[in-house]
TrEMBL record:
Belongs to the fatty acid desaturase type 1 family. It is found in: Membrane. It is an enzyme of class 1 (oxidoreductase). InterPro entries: Cyt_B5-like_heme/steroid-bd, Cyt_B5-like_heme/steroid_sf, FA_desaturase_dom, Fatty_acid_desaturase. Keywords: Heme, Iron, Lipid metabolism, Membrane, Metal-binding, Oxidoreductase, Sphingolipid metabolism, Transmembrane, Transmembrane helix. Residues 11-86 form the Cytochrome b5 heme-binding domain. The chain crosses the membrane at residues 232-256, 276-294, 354-376, 396-415. It comes from the Eukaryota. It comes from Aspergillus cavernicola. This is Delta 8-(E)-sphingolipid desaturase. Its main location: membrane. Pathway: Lipid metabolism; sphingolipid metabolism; Sphingolipid metabolism. It is a multi-pass membrane protein. Residues 133-163 are annotated as: Disordered.
Length: 569
């Protein structure tokens, strides 16, 4: 898609150093193509939430923005352009991820601008380059004289092995990075730029083949399926078959989620207002879940996939840890709090591979909690509003409608006894568990390593996401979620076209030598359980290590005390 600047606009070329200074002053600067966008005035109105923008500050966000926005939205973004860059952009680490930035002092920095080669290398070291220290090596400036900024919620990580008790975990992190580097193309600028160009060429091919055009007749079939399941639910309810009624209602909700997912990605009409309205009717009015909550978390998930600190989809403490890095009380930038590896987490994580399916049976109840927290926080005037306000009020109406028909109309009026009500609610909610398995399947077994800010969007998506191989006649059961790798590359492709897009994506992967992860449903489950089992074992080893270290410290302390006592005599 065209992200070139509007021809009428004069080219105000900004240097890398000047952009760094603007970010140090707190400006939200994002690179799109060769354009420099300043998004400060837009962040509170962004329908995808503020965090999706904050994770792109100082980065070339061309692929992420194109993947998640309509052509109309891309055109609207030109209003935020403040200049352009001449050379291919080299990413900074965003402040929210711990990046540090120097203020821009014009007189001091004129000499540095002349020597831009050095400054173009500044952000080349993951996980969190501290630019001033790097420049100290080049003899340009010492750290203490530079004014720096970093985002308060997520301080830059300490250098590796700063705490002896975490050295085992650091070694493990390093090992995972090395394994990924051995399996995937190098993360140097040339390799990644080549992957990016081919990824964009593939997008053009997908457009030419009409794969972005929604197949509305497929939705006709969906509507028939929904109607059949809802009719069976009403029929069973009428005949006082409450367990059976719960089963059919659960299947109905399970199917509906796929359409809400399509609408959330503007994959039905490609129009924000229309698709948001469809999504809210399906998710809130009929399903009782918040589309707005899902969009805010899902957009971050799509750009920070499988990142323990940043991706809310894998931040499930104290129930699951998909990486050993959760043992270190990580700070979540999404929830803006510490995910403590507390006594509950320590106990549950050790057995998480056994608890995986039982916990997922109750997944829908957790979604209610997250939905209400989102809707209520958005209606609080003290809170910065996230995106336009009308969806919040429509969602609130949707929740009232849902609890009127489901809570009062069905559970209270139509079911006579409390035993039957509990059975009905549990069955209808637990039947949706395969959906939670499907969602977690695509990512839990894949890499959580951070290969740094230079990794291309396409490679990161394919490295952190797997597809599920199934027969075409089973597609309706998986609802398009079995093509997660393809969906992560091109989120706005309507789900009924994903199987056709798979052929093109396989060719692309072979061409750029990126492994395309695809497993059968059974093997995928095995891989996820294997990963959860590995992390559970690491949790046990980590706990033993800490216990031994504590005993050593205590015995050493005791020995030292005894020794000192003799000396006094």
């Amino acid at each position: 898609m065209d992200t070139s600047p509007a021809p009428a606009r004069a080219k105000n070329v900004l240097s890398r150093r000047e952009i760094e200074g603007r970010i140090a002053d707190g400006q939200l600067i994002v690179i799109l193509g060769t354009n420099v966008l300043k998004l400060d005035s837009w962040i509170d109105r962004h329908p995808g939430g503020d965090l999706a923008i904050k994770h792109m500050v100082g980065r070339d966000a061309t692929d992420e923005v194109n993947a998640l926005h309509s052509t109309k939205a891309l055109r609207a973004m030109r209003a935020f352009q403040i200049g352009s860059v001449e050379d291919r952009w080299v990413n900074f680490t965003p402040p929210i991820q711990g990046g540090r930035f120097r203020r821009y002092y014009e007189e001091e920095d004129i000499i540095e601008d002349l020597n831009s080669d050095i400054s173009s290398e500044l952000s080349s070291r993951p996980p969190s380059p501290i630019f001033d220290t790097v420049e100290g090596e080049h003899g340009l400036r010492h750290r203490k004289s530079a004014s720096t900024i970093s985002s308060p919620p997520s301080p830059a990580p300490e250098p590796e092995s700063s705490e002896p008790r975490f050295c085992v975990l650091d070694a493990r992190t390093q090992q995972e990075i090395l394994l990924d580097k051995a399996e995937y193309p190098p993360v140097d600028a040339e390799h990644q730029h080549n992957i990016t160009l081919k990824y964009r060429a593939l997008n053009k091919r997908i457009q030419q083949e009409g794969l972005y055009n929604c197949n509305y007749s497929a939705y006709g079939v969906e509507a028939l399926r929904y109607s059949l399941l809802f009719s069976l639910f009403l029929f069973s309810l009428h005949h006082s078959q409450f367990a059976l009624a719960g089963l059919f209602l659960g299947c109905f909700w399970h199917q509906l989620v796929f359409t809400a997912h399509d609408a959330g990605h503007m994959g039905i009409t490609h129009d924000f207002t229309t698709d948001t309205t469809i999504g809210i009717i399906v998710a809130d009015f009929i399903g009782g879940l918040s589309l707005g909550w899902w969009k805010r978390s899902h957009n971050v998930h799509h750009i920070m996939t499988n990142s323990p600190e940043h991706d809310p989809d894998i931040e499930l403490m104290p129930f699951f840890a998909v990486s050993h890095r959760f043992f270190t009380n990580l700070h979540s930038t999404y929830y803006d709090r510490l995910m403590e590896f507390d006594i509950v987490a320590k106990t549950v994580v050790k057995y998480q591979h056994y608890l995986y399916y039982p916990i997922l049976l109750f997944g829908r109840f957790n979604l209610y909690f997250l939905s209400y927290a989102h809707i209520l926080s958005g209606l609080n005037p003290r809170n910065k509003k996230q995106g336009p306000l009308w969806p919040r009020y429509l969602e609130l109406a949707g929740q009232l409608f849902f609890w009127s028909w489901f809570g009062y109309g069905i559970c209270y009026l139509s079911i006579p006894t409390w035993t039957s009500r509990i059975i009905f609610v549990l069955i209808s909610h637990c039947v949706t568990a395969p959906l939670h398995v499907q969602i977690t399947l695509s990512h839990y077994g894949m890499s959580t390593a951070d290969l740094g800010v230079h990794e291309s969007f396409a490679q990161k998506m394919l490295r952190t996401t797997m597809d599920v191989d199934c027969a075409p006649w089973l597609d309706f059961v998986h609802g398009g979620l079995q093509f997660q790798a393809i969906h992560h590359l091109y989120p706005r492709i309507p789900r009924h076209n994903l199987r056709r897009a798979q052929v093109l994506v396989r060719e692309f992967c072979a061409d750029v030598e990126i492994p395309y992860a695809i497993f059968t449903f059974v093997d995928g489950n095995r891989k996820v359980l294997g990963r959860l089992g590995d992390v559970a074992q690491q949790a046990r080893i980590f706990e033993e290590g800490r216990r031994e270290a504590a005993q050593e410290v205590l015995s050493g302390h005791h020995h030292h005390h005894g020794h000192g006592h003799k000396h006094d005599h």
